[in-house]
Sequence to fold (431 residues):
Amino acid sequence: MTRLLITLIIASVSLHSQADAWSLDSCITYAISHNISVRSAQLDNLGAHLAVTEAKDRFLPTLNAGAQQSWDFGRSLTSDNTYANRNISNFGWSVQLSLPIFQGLSALRQLRQAEAASRAGELQSLAVADEVTLSVMSLYLQALYNRELLAVSREQLRLTTTQLERQEALLEAGKVPEVDVIQARAQVATAEVDTVNAANNLRLSLIDLAQALEIKNTDEFDISPLPDSETAPILISLSEATDRALGGYSSILAARARVESADRAVDLARSGYLPRLSFNAGLGDSYYRMSGLYNNSFSRQMRDNFSKTLGFTLQIPIFDAFSTRNSIRRAQLNRRSANLDLERCESDLRKAVEQAWTQADGARKKLDASIIAAEASKAALDAMTEKYTYGKANASEWEQTRSNYITSLAEQTRAKYETILRTRILNFYAR
Fold:
């Protein structure tokens, strides 16, 4: 019954692997397009683009039209300085045009500041996508690592099952005591438990990855192995990796763009000290009617009262209760904060690159050593199995040798995927 359960679990995992498997690139692409944090950053970026459009619109003139109608009832003062009951009706309309000529450079500086903020928003969106990429990459390789561990557990189960069959045959021939068979059965049972746990760990890691991709149905989700070129990544030097990362990593570029935007904001605040000049033009007309007096017709008054206006408006700031000064100081504080954020980002990136390079270099050395250890432990197991078969070694010696071989396989697998992960992270920083 237990072996049947093991077979069903392993078959289930195999069926998942036969479904449409996701590659690492497809997982990253899907995650970037569906991740909530990335989508939120993209919405913020759209808002930054809208701010650029609004800044450009400040250069356009404004045109307004209006009309008014009023009625007055009751006593009012007449032209002969007496009061009389009069009903007065008054109608008028107007069209006003205002064209900014010089706005103290505020419109131009606002446009430049908005463009810098828009660039920062785009880069920040890419930075969020980079964080999602690193997370998906780690989860993907963890799933591959768990799949390799499942293969190691299967190999352990195969070895223990084969040895149990040999012990049962030797027991029937009277060459080994029954305790050796009992011990072999215990080893098979332990290997079966390890295989079940490895299969569950693989399935859980696949679920974690699917949930990171915002995939709701995780039953048929599975991934494909990396191509052979990915299993032997090239490790670049630490100095080259650091220079590349500082020169082109999205979070650094976004921080630099925010510094530029803060510089533009200081210039924009200084525009409050400059004068402003605008051109104004307007058209207007009115109709007036008072009861008890002779009033010209509506069309006559429309002809007679039609007016045209042209003019310029100059505003020179003299004292604005220190509003401009305070705005400049606030913008300068924001600029200092942006510079500190840039320094922090650069420092964090240097540490991350150095850590990734050190881990990748150590993992590569560990992989080379683990390959040699696995080959040696395999040769030792083959020799011990032969000795055990002919009664020249006991079950404890064989079990210890088998355990060493399985441990060396697991260490080799761990070193392999740690090398791939750390090197991929390093190359991602330095791309």
